[in-house]
Amino acid sequence: MKNFSTILLALFIGMFWVFRIVVAIGTEFGIDMGGIKVLNMNIEVILLFVVLLALILIVKRKMIGAIIYLVAYGMYFGVDLFNSVVEIANGDNSVNLAFNAFISLIGIVIPIAVFFDMLLDKQRKANPKDKKTDWFYKNEQYDRKLDERADKNNYRTL
Q1: What share of the chain has pLDDT > 90, as a percent?
Q2: What does the DSSP assignment read for 55-121?
Q3: Would residue 107 count as lying in a domain?
Q4: Is 147 inside a domain boundary?
Q5: Residue range(s) defining the domain that contains residue 39
Q6: Smallest Cα–Cα separation from 124: which of 68, 58, 54?
Q7: Which of 38, 39, 68, 128 could covalently link to 123 via disulfide, CB atoms 3.0 to 4.6 Å apart?
């Protein structure tokens, strides 16, 4: 995670994940969260664990994490966003509907940004080449010289 964009996206994923936990707990206890609703409590709980796994994979720069995150949130929030847009287009102009559509839009935009960040990042490999340190850590001549020098250090005590 050397890129600033990756760090920011991981923070946004974490904040949105915590937000969804708060909304799920609020819905379960019957607390009004300003009109924000959970679409399906069972799927929401499963999705929270899936996103936690995907977040770990994204931080480790694995492309499969971005794909899992995009598919999971795309299927969950994409349907709600589509239904909300259709209802708004039909004339239902409620604030709660618009706010839930906005939350669903955020739930779609973050995974798309993570997917494209991973897709465009060329150094997402497990062992990327770093010219600043490879001369030291991947230099076999230096290791041999160090080993030869270390073997000759026989100090005598009086």
Answers
A1: 49
A2: HHHHHTT-HHHHHHHHHHHHHHHHHHHHHHHHHHHTT---HHHHHHHHHHHHHHHHHHHHHHHHHH-
A3: yes
A4: no
A5: 4-129
A6: 58
A7: 128
Asked if residues 25 and 34 have their Cβ atoms less than 8 Å apart, the reply is no
Are the CB atoms for 121 and 3 separated by under 8 Å? yes
Could you read off the pLDDT of 61-89 as tens digits, one per residue?
888 999 999 999 999 999 999 999 999 89
Q: Which two tokens stand for residue 112?
A: 């798309």
Considering the domain boundaries, does residue 137 fall inside one?
no
pLDDT of residue 32: 82
Distance from the first to the final alpha carbon of the chain: 53
Task: Give the mean pLDDT of the chain.
Answer: 82
Which residues lie below 8 Å from residue 107, measured CB to CB, with a gap of 6+? 16, 73, 76, 77, 81
The two structure tokens encoding residue 28:
């379960």
Domain count, the chain: 1
